[in-house]
Amino acid sequence: VLQAMREDAGGLKLQALRVDGGASHNALLMQLQADILGVQVVRPADVETTALGAALAAAVGVGLTTEDAVLGSAQKDGDTSFLPAIGDKARSQKVADWVKAVSRSLGWEEGSKIAEADEPEADDGA
Question: DSSP assignment of 10-70, as one string?
């Protein structure tokens, strides 16, 4: 997903990833994201901010506020930051291992040659 975002952004470098929602409660997941992405991951004190984000986007849309006012980059009180704790070499290896694991998992759906090979042959009574 990050690679697609980078391509869509014309090569802009991600400075930080701001997260919210239920999964962001998991500190291990947030640290893994920081390590693999190589950027700071910032979790707000209130992680259920989806509705707030929609309301703020609407406010910008009707001219009640500006994007700059809404998207201020300063970290807020109570936010938790997760900083990358691994180097570039370890990060590259982990990403390569993940890509390898994903490629090995392809084709496991019903009807695939892998699934068919695991099915017992029918007994034709002969």
Answer: TTPPP-EEE--SGGGG-HHHHHHHHHHHTSEEEE-SS---HHHHHHHHHHHHTTSS-HHHH
Asked if 40 contacts 81 with a C-beta cutoff of 8 angstroms, the reply is yes
- Contact partners, residue 49, CB within 8 Å, separation at least 6: 20
pLDDT of residue 14: 83
Residues 6+ apart with CB under 8 A from 5: 14
Partner residues linked to 81 by β-bridges: 42
The C-alpha atoms of residue 122 and residue 110 are separated, in whole angstroms, by 17
Q: CA-CA distance, 15 to 60, in Å (whole number)?
A: 23
- Residue 67's Cα: distance from chain center in Å? 23
Cβ-contact 51, 28 below 8 angstroms: no
> What is residue 121's predicted lDDT score, i.e. its pLDDT?
58
- Report pLDDT for 36: 93
- Residue ranges in the chain modelled with pLDDT below 50: none
pLDDT the model gives residue 122: 56
